[in-house]
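Morning!

This is the sequence you dropped in the shared folder:
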Amino acid sequence: MKASRHFCNWMLMAACVAGATGMVGGAAHAAQIYKSEYRVSLYGLTIARASFSTNVSDSRAYEVNGKLMSSGLGSLFDDTSGTLDAKGQYSEAGPVPGSYVVKYKHGKRNKTTTIAFANGNVTSTVNVPPIKKKSNWVELKPDDLKSVADPLSGVMVAADSLDQICSKTLHMYDGQTRIDLKLSPESKPQPFATDGFKGDAITCSAKFVPISGYQSGRKAIEYLKNSSRISMTFASLGKSGIYSPVQAKIGTQIGTVSVYATRFEKTQ
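The structure's back. Tokens below.
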């Protein structure tokens, strides 16, 4: 089934969006540990589950370790599993990534992507196996890899209040494709609750803008760019000033993929 080939991409994207939630407390100055779990669903049926452990040191360095695996409906199409690891440092302006590694197995295929950063700029990218560039490929330019973040750190938003979040543009790079997510207001702040968290959250619409590192004209990209409806609900733990998604919905050609934080709590 053609649609099944896209399951891995949607699940990884969804997990990246959700996994950053565990980092919201990082602006504090004491060592902290967070545990979080997420459900990824399609048509209301679970297709994947993800779990993350986040450590924030007293020097404001963060490290996120995540696991993802297909579940329920997703297991009927493809056996997918993966790990995601991100490291960086918090600054007054928000997270500054240092490294990002994603490894996943999709059926019998294995892929690893490693990205290194310095001062907010990409210094190296290694993909195993290498990316196969097809016709109409939009090449990455040097400036495209400046002032960007990985998909985990990239959805962390530094703001003084919830009302400021939906005016932001998020600049992200996943090791192949450079995109912008342009946020815009969708609703006023509303209560949000899940296991370990209760507080206010705000939902933003997100416009997917491909910059480079992709095949122009590819149906999946064109759909995300021109037809997809993407929303992201942001919340913050305490008074950290760092907001991240606790819920997301991503419109794809095979339906809307939803991500929901079923657990988010500080364990230390």
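Headline: DSSP finds three helices and 17 strands in the chain.

More detail when I'm at my desk.
O.
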